[in-house]
């Protein structure tokens, strides 16, 4: 994934350039108003930059010098927002099938059963969105985006509206999607902890400009924290809980994590 864009939004100038891994998660990290969501809009094709290039692998989606602009519906990009934005009148199953409808002209690489199982939502298929928790709605939104057979998944602060328990739950499922499908993702967050948990490459944006980028381990200093195992693979740290892949400790144990 390659992004270079200059774009004026009123008094705000966005001027960013970065590259991300083809099968990993690129984290866009920075304060509110830094330009993270504006960058996502340009990648998604919802906004045309004044100048720039957006490419996924060898597939160029925007090239202003060549007057090339692929419309959003043809970009093969899935998007998950802060709110799930599910169709309230449709069941979970029909919301998921909408993703397949969007992908009707694409080769099916991601099968519904695989997504349903990874996200653990099979028991929810007959329900309506109003009958779901916030975390369950976000899991369905993730599933719908995945079933559109995207070449890239955009996540715009997908857990920021959730309480700590639901946030940890959904982050665990995003990590599972990453491991299972090796799909490139561009993930917007304020949270260094989310970046450490999910990211492969980190791009720091401040006041519309990239102020640093590199591996997550290089960009974020390691710190040690102590927590209590409250469920298999889940640790409570203060008032928050978080999934820890590969954790082999009994419930109730105190563990020390490098973070």
From TrEMBL:
Question: What does the UniProt keyword field contain?
Answer: ATP-binding, Nucleotide-binding
Domain ABC transporter span(s) in chain numbering: 1-232
UniProt-listed InterPro entries: AAA+_ATPase, ABC_transporter-like_ATP-bd, ABC_transporter-like_CS, ModC_ABC_ATP-bd, Molybdenum_import_ModC, P-loop_NTPase
Q: Does the keyword Nucleotide-binding apply?
A: yes
What is the protein named? Answer: ABC transporter domain-containing protein
Recorded source organism is: Sphingomonas cynarae
